[in-house]
UniProtKB/TrEMBL annotation:
The keyword Cell membrane applies. GO terms for cellular component: plasma membrane. It comes from Trichuris muris (Mouse whipworm). This is G_PROTEIN_RECEP_F1_2 domain-containing protein. SMART domains: 7TM_GPCR_Srsx (SM01381). One of its GO terms (molecular function) is G protein-coupled receptor activity. It is a multi-pass membrane protein. The lineage of its organism: Eukaryota, Metazoa, Ecdysozoa, Nematoda, Enoplea.
Amino acid sequence: MNESSLSALSPEKLPRDITDVIQSIQVALLVLAFVAIATSFAVLLVILKSKALRNRYFVTMISMSINDLLTGISYFVLELCNLVAGVEDQKPDYTCCSKSGLLSFCNNNALMSAVALSVDRTVAVCHPLFYRNVSIYKFHVPLMFLSTSYSVALSLVIGVQGYGKPIAFNRCGPELCWNSWFAVHTLQHLNMVLAFSIFFLNLSVIVYSRYTAKKYQRRNLIQLFHIKYDEQTRVMKTLTWVTLVVVTLQIVGRIMRLMSLQAENEITYTLFYNSFHISTTLNAALNFFVVALTSVAFRAALKDIFIQSSVVSPF
């Protein structure tokens, strides 16, 4: 499917079943976006208010939660506007590429946050002494800056190249904002490679951690292992699960996005293409539950915050 075929169908030609599908997807995105706003705000609140979690091990998690919050707000506002405007009376969208640039940033930054999280975990496990002593301004801040810069650069290209370009609202997406289909496919495959690389990097860190533990155990130095790696291994479980959820949903969503470009009919395109948006908002909404299920410290901090806030002093 090329650019002309992607933009060929005007809103007036949309059959009723397609409009029903589009509206259902908009409602689903609206609900997921609202959940993402609430849950990502809760993660930020718990981490920032808890002394046990407010440390270098959760810096990249804070960055990811901020992106989840931005994702939720962006999708909630845009989908609410789309629902209010309705489907039948929609005109070609001249602001599509500007909005797509924002959503593209959220999508790509979720993946790049997972990259930063994986690099952070790798350094923490493989070089624990360096990780404990290095300043966050010399390691974490540059790491997050580099990962965010990639997402910002892609979003700027989308917004600038497609500025003012009229696109049918049901076809609105970053693909039509690029002037090269080669670039579209290249970037999607590059992001897929990044996602798989994150998966294998985390697998390698787990294997290395287990190997190191067994090595210390054979030397009867298991206590020394706990002294050096206790914090890393305790946090690694949580952040590894968070990363795997992000990577899995990114891979599934991007496969669906590539499949949508090969779709031969409107309803197939709509379902495949919007699956990527569903996976993005679902990821933003799920991170809170993943952290809560895998981190005892997070659950304790969450419990303390809500118990303290619910206790009414008699004085």
